[in-house]
Amino acid sequence: MKLYVVGIGCGNRNGMTVGAEKAVLESDIIVGYTVYAEQIKRMYPEKECMSTGMKQETERVELALRLASEGKTVSLVCSGDSELYGMAGLALELAVKYPDVDVETVAGVSAAFSGGAVLGSPLTYDTAIISLSDLLTPTKKIEKRLRCAADGDFVIVLYNPSSKKRADYLKKACDIILEYRSPDTVCGYVRNIGRDGEESRLLTLSQLRDTSVDMFTTVFIGSSETKIIGGKMVTPRGYRNV
Amino acid sequence: MKLYVVGIGCGNRNGMTVGAEKAVLESDIIVGYTVYAEQIKRMYPEKECMSTGMKQETERVELALRLASEGKTVSLVCSGDSELYGMAGLALELAVKYPDVDVETVAGVSAAFSGGAVLGSPLTYDTAIISLSDLLTPTKKIEKRLRCAADGDFVIVLYNPSSKKRADYLKKACDIILEYRSPDTVCGYVRNIGRDGEESRLLTLSQLRDTSVDMFTTVFIGSSETKIIGGKMVTPRGYRNV
Q1: Which CATH number describes the domain made up of A112-234?
Q2: Chain A residues whose beta carbon lies within 8 Å of the beta carbon of residue B18
Q3: Where are chain A's structural domains?
Q4: Which of A239, A230, A228 is nearest to A122 (CA)?
Q5: Residues of B in contact with A105 (CB under 8 A)
Q6: What is the ipTM of this complex?
Q7: How many CA atoms lie less than 13 Å away from B184 in the CB half-sphere?
């Protein structure tokens, strides 16, 4: 009668929390999106894993809840964190139909943090995290949030910066941010964080505007204080003592 | 010649990543703020630990860099994540004086996520993280960010919501947010996340305004979509399919 919704981090065991690993090991069955279910299967070959495809989030959560209601201990795995752009919210919503199932959120390291660590320390201070996907948020709301985050001089992390249908979304987002920030603002991106083929690049906001990234990329836009120090993207600490 | 800046999560081993634990175990010496150095000492009693007090961040980082430059493998530990309100930025800044030392950021689960998991799933979508401490950010900039985050309908997570000198900062922050959001907005807070005496509460924004919290508390202010579902704070997933 237990469903763990588990953030498994960026893609390797080092990026998982000890608690996430315990939840997976304690579970009778693991449910996840195909890619993450396969990843867990490679890491823990003895575990029974079930998967559903992209955009089948409701089916996936229902499957996990049904298995838990049948008496199994289940881990529903999400990449990064289990809340942020993950399945914990939907699991808690749908769990009202399964009152016997105890749903527990197990936090994980989201791409803003695992990717930030690759670049150096962009996220030293106040940070806004925004997804450019309009599947679940209206475009006007995304644009408003970009404006507010840029105006507030937050370090901005962009998730889902691109897809086949949305090839120019990053360019549009940069154009909005360029209304508030210098074209020389320090930016960076990381692709395939923690996986084979991980790559990263530092660049200016005007360069980022004209760069194509794919859906496996997380984008970082510095605040007015962010610098490149020793080849790393760093938002320095403090306005009084530096 | 290696310095790991390690986010150790919320306060217990389950909240640490496997990679953070490896870095600590691989290190000859651990450096941290007194509370976190003691925590590591309890978890790994065989490890040599050195600590410095509050507001001695520069001394702490210099100590860690000096030890690393003398040939030791060092972990500089931070609670939560190593970037966000952590030491990674300062370490990368000061490391220019120690060109032989390789500084590696090891990400951790920040309180927004470990605390969010306690409350349910407040952070399902776009999130703004703001510290109310004016030690390192001017008050005017903090107020501007609160306005922008509220106007953008972000879920807002407040770090350092209070201290002895700033007893009314949370009230002031709530007053700013109340210019943009309903007094009935779903809010929550978690105190001592992952530690003895962990406690959490759900309340409205108007109730939060008149609540005293301490410096060990992380505060969550829902977006216009955040609800209480089954006793948990949940930002529901999606505007099309719910």
Answers
A1: 3.30.950.10
A2: 13-18, 21
A3: 2-109, 112-234
A4: A228
A5: 116-118, 120-121
A6: 0.96
A7: 4
